[in-house]
User: Fold this.
Amino acid sequence: MAALPSDGEMREKKRILVTGGAGFIGTHTVLQLLKGGFLVSIIDNFDNSCEEALERVRDLAGPDLSQNLQFYLGDLRNREDLERVFSESRYDAVIHFAGLKAVGESVAKPLLYYNNNMIGTIHLYEFMTKYGCKKMVFSSSTTVYGQPEKIPCVEDSELNALNPYGRTKLFLEDMARDIQHADPEFRVILLRYFNPVGAHESGQIGEDPKGIPNNLMPYIQQVAVGRRPVLNVYGDDYPTKDGTPIRDYIHVMDVADGHIAALRKLFAEENIGCIAYNLGTGFGTSVLEMVAAFEKAAGKKIPIKMCPRRPGDATEVYASTEKAQKDLGWSARYGIAEMCRDQWNWASKNPYGYQSQPPES
Ligand code: UD1
Assistant:
């Protein structure tokens, strides 16, 4: 393996385009990029994010580094928006977060998901090709493992998707492989996130989903601050230690740092092709264990109600972390206690997320 460049070498005026940079994982990654000395341009349509999140990133980065952040309000489906973004700067690499990700919504509105996730990404590759930017870090997901037959999930397992959202991720992984195969100058890293949770240690940025949260931790957080009365636990009859499903929760700062490690590889090595890496901790935690850890961090009880299973939920999913550790020199640093501590810090300081008032619904 070629020697990885030092932070100093990486800093040499590398400009990264971050799509969806105002979102949950986007904001944390952009902050780490700025702190790592990169120049960053974001394109985001604020579909599930907001301007205030970017203001907080600027504050956390400080006056000097925040000058290195440029923002475009735009939608990847709109070619004019992309033309503007690509014609105004030269990018050394793209990190592509932008996309819709609610499983239930994707079942109800498949065209919305295919339109947004597929067309946006196709346009992005077209503009990358046109402007000669051929390094890509793509947000993939554990969803591409479907109902995994073997755990821990290893990157070369057979892939399978169970819903339209998952299929968009699977198709986009395949598309990336095809594009790279046709044009070997492309270097593509697919990062498969397990369950990103937690928040920046400052408590100034964190996850703030619009509407009723689909995922466990944002829901727990809203119960903890009194926005919702009770957490519905979807199934306690799974063949696990306490009957609830097991997932690999990972601190969002570890996920953010995984992107820096991926960029480092993209810049250091030629002919890497298109490679997938899991970003997980390798540890499984049950729903009830997560509730207990959050209660401990918050010092309060989370009321729960046992409910039937949620359709499509897998029993147990966790990552094999070897490949990322070996190739990217990256591994997760934080455990469940720190994830809950930081998520509670964010929630208690920002009970309504980036809003100061309760939302209308
Ligand atoms: C979900 C998505 C997955 C996506 C990932 C993004 C589904 C079926 N899968 O994964 O495609 O990539 O989010 O992070 O939606 N739970 C409750 N009560 C709740 C919410 C969740 O008991 O109110 C349980 C679920 O049954 C599950 C666990 O908590 O066992 C984790 O759920 P969630 O946070 O939605 O993540 P995944 O299902 O792993």
Observations:
- The first strand starts at residue 15 and ends at 19.
- The pocket of uridine-diphosphate-N-acetylglucosamine is lined by residues 103, 141-143, 166, 195, 214-216, 219, 231-234, 245, 247, 287, 310, 312-313 (CB under 6 Å).
- Residues 110-130 form the longest helix (21 residues).
